[in-house]
């Protein structure tokens, strides 16, 4: 029997770091952000679609994510049109991963897991959570990120409190140690349930 674990968390909560901890435990992880990066890279399946929507965001045959983010900040009405182009491609990549990857536990690392209804593909969901102060300081430390950019990104995501309420597990991510302990506990519980 296989267990598909959805892993989510709002931006800046430590989800990518937590996903790496699942990999450290030998668990295959599909990363939605990495899938989008591949789609936006030279030759990626989304490049032409983005060029048709935001021509200035395609530079050197690839999507320039900073230019795309600026275009979205200027014109938020582009969001649903971009999502309609990119999300089906991401879903195809996720389906390929699930079909082709062996393992008793597989992790789907998806920032917008609840927002996109992807929890329906999962046997359980873990949400990575930290305090709002920790989240903000992590985000503002990122290159090119300012308060306006943070607020725009957060406005597109379900509140952390709602994610925590809907998840089976919460991974506290104020420190690496507590996150790693939570990851090991989740893996242990899933394996115990499979016996």
Which helices and strands appear, and what pairs or packs with what?
Blueprint: E1 3-8, H1 15-24, E2 29-31, H2 32-40, H3 47-53, E3 58-59, E4 62-63, H4 65-74, H5 78-100, E5 105-109, E6 124-129, H6 132-140, H7 147-155, H8 160-166, E7 169-172, H9 176-194
Parallel strand pairs: 1-5, 1-6, 2-5, 6-7
Antiparallel strand pairs: 3-4
Task: Write out key terms for the chains shown.
195 residues; 5-stranded parallel beta sheet; Rossmann fold; 2 domains; alpha/beta; 9 helices; single chain; two-stranded antiparallel ribbon
How does this model look, in words?
The protein is an alpha/beta fold and 195 residues long. It folds into 2 domains: 1-28 and 104-195, Rossmann fold, CATH 3.40.50.300; 34-100, no CATH class. It has 9 helices and 7 strands, in the order E-H-E-H-H-E-E-H-H-E-E-H-H-H-E-H. The protein has helices spanning 15-24, 32-40, 47-53, 65-74, 78-100, 132-140, 147-155, 160-166, 176-194, and strands at residues 3-8, 29-31, 58-59, 62-63, 105-109, 124-129, 169-172. A hairpin with a 2-residue loop joins strand 3 and strand 4 (62-63). Helix 2 crosses helix 5. The longest helix has 23 residues, at 78-100. The N and C termini lie close together (9 Å). The model has no long low-confidence stretch (mean pLDDT 92).
């Amino acid at each position: 029997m296989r267990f598909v674990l959805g892993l989510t968390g709002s931006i800046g909560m430590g989800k990518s770091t937590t996903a790496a901890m699942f990999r450290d435990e030998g668990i295959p992880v599909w990363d939605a952000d990495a899938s989008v990066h591949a789609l936006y890279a030279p030759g990626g399946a989304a490049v032409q679609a983005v060029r048709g929507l935001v021509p200035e965001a395609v530079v050197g045959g690839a999507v320039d994510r900073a230019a795309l983010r600026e275009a979205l900040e200027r014109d938020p009405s582009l969001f649903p049109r971009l999502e309609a182009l990119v999300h089906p491609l991401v879903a195809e990549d996720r389906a390929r991963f699930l079909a082709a990857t062996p393992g008793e536990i597989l992790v789907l690392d998806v920032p917008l897991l609840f927002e996109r209804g992807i929890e329906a593909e999962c046997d359980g969901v873990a949400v990575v959570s930290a305090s709002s102060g920790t989240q903000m300081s992590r985000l503002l430390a990122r290159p090119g990120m300012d308060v306006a950019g943070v607020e725009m990104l957060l406005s597109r995501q379900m509140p952390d409190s709602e994610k925590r309420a809907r998840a089976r597990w919460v991974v506290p991510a104020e420190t690496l140690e507590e996150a790693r302990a939570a990851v090991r506990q989740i893996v242990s519980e899933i394996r115990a349930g499979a016996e």
